[in-house]
Design brief:
The chain is an alpha/beta fold. Helices cover 28% and strands 17% of the residues. The protein is built from 9 helices and 12 strands. The chain has a 12-stranded mixed β-sheet. Helix 1 links the parallel strand 1 and strand 2. The two termini are 24 Å apart. The structure holds S-adenosylmethionine (SAM). S-adenosylmethionine binds next to strand 3 and strand 5. The site of S-adenosylmethionine has 21 residues, from strand 3 and strand 5.
Length: 325
Amino acid sequence: MLVDNYARRFTYLRLSVTEACNFRCNYCLPDGTDCSSSKRAGELTLDEIRRLVTAFAQLGTKKVRITGGEPSLRRDLCDIIATCKAVPGIDTVALTTNGYRLLQDVSAWKAAGLDALNVSIDSLEAARFKMITGHDKLQKILDGLKLAEELNISKIKINSVLMRHFNEDALDDFLALVHSRPFTLRFIELMRTNDNHDFFDHHHLSGSMIEHELLARGWQERERHQHAGPAREFHHPDSRGGIGLIMPYSKDFCASCNRLRVSSDGKLFLCLFADEHQSLREHLQTDNPLPLINYLHSAIGGKAATHYLHQQNSGSTRQLAMIGG
Ligand code: SAM
């Protein structure tokens, strides 16, 4: 079991499989990224992913989330899902995607073993969605979401970054969506990264305004399990789906941290906003997991108690596409 100096247990691995993204979200990659194969040459291979997940699983990891960049840009995504799913000890394989390929690919992802799906949708108004992401794809993504529901993917979440002037008034739209659909819609507070200082200053909004609104409308907060992550979840007797809040600027947010991250080129991120990252790649070249297990045991002691976002310190994180949020 991986336990740090603050008694936090790490059972959740967020694995980025590419830094490339085809969207140009205004808070993340407003100018897009280079998606060329030469730029992507250093991405972890399937064998490296299998060895990585095997070592984490032997240390108690139960859940792997595949993220990016945009993970559906990996042509071998189904193989990656199946590989993670086949590792003994892994009970949940989840995917975070912008939904661009959902309609075409979700059946294959499910067949490969996908258990849970997060789709990022920052607005349910087509024009605003395009303004935020640079793509006029809202309807196609919603069609993909419907198909995912029909396929009975049991855990479907929608991620929406809360932003002043873009979606601060979107609560009613999202409540209408989850009213009859089995999704959890999660508002994520905009986080400051090294590339979005100005955007952050203009658009950051505390999730507490959503919390107050929900409580005023009769929503109730769910009790959190002992080792649940930092998201807070709300439910309402009249609504099939739920609402979540991820508030990284709130007090004690990091106390419930249960996740570690690995970048698409195999670097360990002890925190989303750490300064330095160690490459695990040398430990991924043989099927013997012990060197990596030993390394992770010693590295976990270096995990800081909290991030330093309140001090306007985003570590070395330029934007979240480089590690997957
Ligand atoms: N491309 C995938 C997607 O769109 O979901 C996975 C990668 S994306 C970086 C993962 C999540 O991080 C998305 O929900 C995105 O909206 C969120 N995100 C990106 N930058 C963020 C920021 N500065 N603050 C808060 N959330 C952010």
